Amino acid sequence: MSLSIILPVLNEAQGIAETLGALRGLGAQVIVADGGSRDGTIGAALPLAGLVVPAPRGRAVQMNAGAREASGDLLLFLHADTKLPAGAVELIAAALQSHQWGRFDVAIEGRSPFLRLISAMMNVRSRLTGIATGDQAMFMTRKAFEAIGGFPEIPLMEDIAASKALKRIGPPACLRARVRTSGRRWDKNGVLRTVLLMWRLRLEYFFGADPDGLALRYGYRPREEDA
Q1: Is 38 exposed, middle or buried, given 0-12, 13-18 or 19+ CB atoms closer than 10 A?
Q2: Hey, what domains does the chain have and what are their CATH numbers?
Q3: Quick one: which H or E segment has residue 59?
Q4: What local confidence, expressed as pLDDT, does residue 227 receive?
């Protein structure tokens, strides 16, 4: 079975070449779904990606747009600042022989020594709840993706919403191999502040808060404000 890797990106010119370079030689189709970058991301991605797909801004919308163009039977959704572990393609293929979807453990890399503890807590919580985050590099069969209608096209919490839908199909494969993701948001805003914000937003989402309002508080800005 073939694998397609979909990367939703927005203004990632500084690191996209390194990310895509690490995916070369994996034998997978690589699709960059760009949400309107203005910094040269597309130019940097074109020589290295199998396909660059323009899409309206929004991670869920971009991932769905990339998945529509994917040729693989298996789909991996990878953030632009996340790196796969060795043997990731084989691990995914093996996991999806017995599961319909899954995710990796994650290691957040940054300045704070507390990020190691936060990563461990995220992995344990995910294993106990069956809920994956986008930083954990979610993967699934095309059949599962189509069964849930793709990622809910909301500006925030699309990974949680998709996980809940996927859990109705079956439990996730929780791989202990770790993807490494950038802690740039944690470094910029502070670890404690970021933890408290994310916990508060998740709790409010659980109790039915509007994802649009939560996204604004998280730092998302509508396209017209992105000057």
Answers
A1: exposed
A2: 3-182 (3.90.550.10)
A3: helix 59-68
A4: 38
